[in-house]
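Methods: example folding runs. The two proteins below were folded one after another, and each record is reproduced exactly as written to the output file, sequence line first and structure-token line second.
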Amino acid sequence: MCILFIAIDRHPEFPLIVVANRDEFHPRLTKSAHFWPQPNSILAGLDLQAGGTWLGLNQDGEFSALTNIRSGLNQNPDAKSRGELVPFALAKNSNLDHDWLTLHGDNYNPFNLIFQKQNSLFCYNSIDRTSTKLSPGFHAICNGSLDDVWPKMAKGEQALEKLISQNKTIDIARLFSIMQDRTAAPDELLPNTGIGIEWERKLSSIFIQSKDYGTRSTSVMLKHNNGDIDFYEQSYTNDGAIFNEKSFELTQKG
């Protein structure tokens, strides 16, 4: 997962709205969102290479997502797969919290992990070893720190805020359109994350399109006041064409 925009307590019907893009190399085999078999029973996509995922929900309506951090540091080829953190965060009676992540985070290459504890969302940054509680409002998470002011982060956050504030009814197609913005940022506004100017340019838009690497899927999650969740996903070919559109409803019992 490479960019997420989150709205907390900013819509009268949906206290949590998440829109997210997963960016990855196109040859990397992936299974789109589905309910995993027991004992996980989570709703998530599946990275068929390493066996983890980038974003998911469990049967209790809890949410977790992962982004890599582009730190300029050398990647450890022997590190554990970061994709295993999301299923662990969503597991029943999981003991994943700030202390666990601080103790075990160095086993993985740098990451941000969004995880839920006691009805609150937190973002753990493995480089800073900090957990930040997401306050009511709008948030952007990409490949640096939470709420960095990268051009595409600011643009998507502002677009989501405008859409929600001006419309009582949420148009799912318009949420997807926010995540399909291919506008590149000017060089003078690009971050320096240690990957070189050509890659910074390529990765500067919300939706990334290139022959070998790009946006593979978009996820949209709407959590109702009663805890029910509407989840939508659409995948993309390497030329940006939409395929394999899916939708799910998670109904909370009781």
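Second run, written to the same file directly after the first:
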Amino acid sequence: MLAQPTVDIGLYESSTPGTLELRVRPDGDFDQVVSSLTFTIRWETASGANLGTINQIIDGSLCPLLTAALSKSGDGEVDNGGYRYQTFNCFSNVQLTSCATGPGYMWPANQETVIMTIPVTNNTGCAHFNIVNDSYTNAENKDFYISLNGLDRTGTIYSPDVAQGNCVT
């Protein structure tokens, strides 16, 4: 079996106001199976913010949804230590390149690929959104993890703080 790339993950503000986008960045071309993906987004509870419905139809393409469908974890948004957490998971056995609506779909080496957008709702304050590995996510087995073709290929979390709402800059 060929070596699988390591995949980094990032969270950024979308071009659509009030929406976050999740990006992946492998260090080698990848068109096989994303066996599993877990990551957790954290923000301040005091902001009142929530995360809306996941959108994985990116630029009209169904491929992110059909090959690596993400869902919110069953425990929902969890408040802990002044922060709100939402964990996302994907378990798949479909090759990226097998996407029925766009054969040849892949994650190109050293390029960001958006695989999810999600709106921020009910934000009455300032919220700083991050993908995190912290004491809560570690204790609850919610740290960033990605498996490609059944192999651990977890890279780094590389995104900056994403401020949404009434934030003083």
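Comment on the second run: The chain has a mean pLDDT of 94.
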